[in-house]
Amino acid sequence: MKVWNVCLLVVTAVFLVACEPDMVVEQTLVPETAVSPEQPPVVETVEIVRELPVTVEVTREVVVEYVVEVTPMPLGSPSRPVQLLFPPMQETAVIKNRSAALVNALQEATGLSFEVGIVDSQQRLIELMCAAPQDTIGFMSAAAFVVAHEQCNAQTAVVSVGTDGLSWQTGMIVTRRNTGLTQLADLDGKIWGIPDTTSVPNYHYIKAMFAEAGIEPAEEIIYPGDNSALLALHNGEVDFVTATYIP
Q1: Beta strand 191-194 with 171-175: parallel, antiparallel or unpaired?
Q2: CA–CA distance, 148 with 226 (Å, rounded to integer)
Q3: Residues contacting 91, CB < 8 A, separation 6+
Q4: From CA 144, how far away is CA 152, in angstroms rounded?
Q5: pLDDT, tens only, 23-42
Q6: What pairs with residue 116 in β-bridges?
């Protein structure tokens, strides 16, 4: 009886083993770079460059020089009258009235056109004459003519004679007596009284002479005329003055 029971147990065990289904094992290999479900997918942007033909307009600037010959108007024509230049020796109205007869006489004698011009000073007159010597006729003092002749070889055509019979004019330097100012070098560092800064013989010529000798006045005081400058010298306001020389 015991033997039977053992055999029954053995048979039952064998049956259970035979009825157990086969086990299938599936293995999935996950690469090391796999993305976990919690992470969003990685989106890669790929830039595609395509070459397209482009037309570029190039502008080149070319400088062309042309030589143009200009024919000047004939001298003495209405478009290019001969210039009669006067310094401010008198009032402007006086110079224009007195020069009108001269202009008419010249036009009748030559058939040319003339025009009167009144400049600021004899120095300016010299500059204009030297700039256009063929177009200008200047009326100036003897000292101004010397400067114009040195600068641009100006030539004399007519020389005026004053009521004193002299055909020349010059300036002078005046000092007070007993001042010890007897030489040109003594004027260095002194006060200069000037009657007219536009005058060539009384200012520009003497100023050039000072510069050549190395003389520099301490001060320049301008007066309205010769008489005012000489009176200032008499009153001791200045050390020396320049004025028109009258023999």
Answers
A1: unpaired
A2: 25
A3: none
A4: 12
A5: 444 444 445 554 455 666 66
A6: 84
The rounded distance, in Å, linking the Cα atoms of 192 and 233 is 9
Residues 243, 195: contact at Cβ < 8 Å? yes
The answer to whether the beta carbons of residues 191 and 216 sit under 8 Å apart is no
pTM for this entry? 0.47
Give the pLDDT mean for 84-105: 89
CB of 240 within 8 A of CB of 171?
A: no
Per-residue pLDDT band for 122 (boundaries 50, 70, 90) equals confident
Tokens 């942007």 map to which residue? 45
Q: State residue 193's pLDDT score.
A: 97
Burial class (CB in 10 A: 0-12, 13-18, 19+), 242: buried
Amino acid at 192: W
Q: Tell me whether residue 233 is exposed, middle or buried, using C-beta atoms within 10 angstroms of its C-beta: 0 to 12, 13 to 18, 19 or more.
A: buried
